[in-house]
Amino acid sequence: MERNSDSPGRRIPSPEKNLWRNADFLKLWSAQTVSVTGSLLGALQFTAILTLDATPVQMSALTAAGVLPALLFGFVVGAWVDRLKRRPILIAADLIRMALLGSIPVAWAIDMLHIEQLYVVAFFHGLMTIFFDIAYRSYLPSLVDSRTLVTANSRLSATASAAEVGAFSLGGWIAQLFSAIVVTAVDSATFLVSALLLFWIRRREPTPAPTTQTPGIRREIIEGLKLVFGSPVLRAIGVSKAAMGLAGGIIGTLIVLYGIETLGFEPGVLGTIFAVGGVSSIVGALNVGRLTRRFGLGRMLVVGFLIYGISGFLIPLARGPLWTAGAILTAAQLFDFSMTSYEVNEMSLRQSVTPQRLLGRVNASMEVTMLSFQLLGALLAGALAETVGMRWALFVGSSFMVFGGVWLLLSPMWRMGVVPDSELGQTTLDACK
Question: Which of 68, 136, 289, 324 shows the greatest Cβ crowding within 10 Å of its Cβ?
Fold first, then answer.
């Protein structure tokens, strides 16, 4: 229990207790957990591979379709999120994603499902996800104060990791025992549940402050970009997001295909192996606050990114009998805790040092950066798999991740100690220049 520095004799609740008493945060937390669970079922991937026999190039195109909206609309979305209330955006994004995924079982039932429909669903699903992710990260600071940001983000990360434990494994077993179409139906339902939970939040969201200048999308986008590029801290985060996107585009496009077709795993078994990563992430999320207080935010952020990148090399090294390949893939999943450490600290830092009126645009800049490079990685994945094979393509993906970790190591990020109070954000950024 910590003490209030302004009232030495008075105890105040710990961040953990504050969050458990915050009913609206608990609703947001529950909505995010359900939504992430649905997203991690792998509905589009399983449908493409198991129902439509997709090739590596088609899988590459499917991944590209999902991230293309970030490149086209991400900056505009960020500006709009800063103009509007965030909760209605979250609810609308969930309902539209529910309808998009629900169209797949309908098309399959009337024998009209084609890979082109998955491309369309992936595109508009990706657009709604951009709206949701930017609004969600911008909405959180209005529900919790700066003292509880790290704890709130670690709790959200923990449940996302818990979803990872069961979601992809569940999706794999549903696909194996029933069909990939059933996976899409379940995925669609999760977004409806998430929307209902968000609708239940009762705290009145403050109306965005009007700008003192004439509104203009272009001017507002430039204002957000200037903050990102002008700060060594935010700029370093941006480079790490680019590296993560490039690596994720390559690895994410190929890993399910690699596990099923190259290594020979059944979908349910492969999902169970990946669930180990969720367990590791839960452990990381539950301990990241304590470790950050001990070793410092910057060190935990940088080391976490580097460890995750290096562990990625285990994926293409998996080969031989199924039990050997499975053991190596499982070993790679054991290091997922390190990415959780990076994500919790990076998000808490970003939310705290960015002025509230610019948070949507800064979040958009990071999302656009990561997803644009993810698009590039997805396109590279298909070309690399066709020319040098999936193993070498996965090696290339992990190499990009390690590059991002080295960049963070050489940046001012290493000197960051703790997450500052929101009002001290710009001072903190200036101090790292």
Answer: 136
Say how many domains are in the chain.
Answer: 1
The domain that contains 196 carries what CATH number? Answer: 1.20.1250.20
What one-character-per-residue DSSP string does 149-210 give?
Answer: HHHHHHHHHHHHHHHHHHHHHHHHHHHHHT-HHHHHHHHHHHHHHHHHHHHT--SPPPPPPP
The stretch 237-251 carries a mean pLDDT of 90
Helix, strand, or coil here: 132?
helix
Mean pLDDT of all residues in 112-134: 89
| DSSP label of 133 | H
> What b-and-e string marks burial along 120-155, b requiring 16 or more CB atoms within 10 Å of the CB?
ebbbbbbbbbbbbbbbbbbbbbbbbebebbbbbbbb
The residues, any chain, with a CB within 8 Å of residue 122's CB and separated by 6 or more, are: 44, 62, 63, 65, 66
Query: Tokens representing 35?
Result: 């939504």
Closest CA to 359 of 151, 135, 147: 135
Q: Is residue 6 part of a domain?
A: no
Q: DSSP string spanning 238-299? A: HHHHHHHHHHHHHHHHHHHHIIIIIS---HHHHHHHHHHHHHHHHHHHHHHHHHHHHH-HHH
pTM: 0.66
Q: Give the number of other Cβ atoms within 10 Å of residue 355's Cβ.
A: 12
DSSP code per residue over 303-315: HHHHHHHHHTTHH
Contact between 160 and 36 under an 8 Å Cβ cutoff? The reply is: yes
Q: What pLDDT digit, counting tens, does each position of 252-300 carry?
A: 888 888 888 888 888 778 877 877 777 787 777 777 777 877 887 778 8
Q: Domain range spanning residue 39?
A: 17-203+216-431
Report the alpha-carbon distance of residue 361 to residue 282 in Å, rounded.
29
pLDDT in tens, 70-117: 778 877 777 777 777 888 889 999 999 999 999 999 999 998 888 999
Give a yes or no: residue 377 inside a domain: yes
Give the pLDDT score at 142: 74
| 11 bridge partner residues | 3
Residue 405 in contact with residue 306, Cβ under 8 Å? yes
* Number of helices (H), then strands (E), in the chain: 18, 0
Distance between alpha carbon 200 and the CA centroid of its chain, in Å?
24
Strands of 288-400 (E only): list them: none
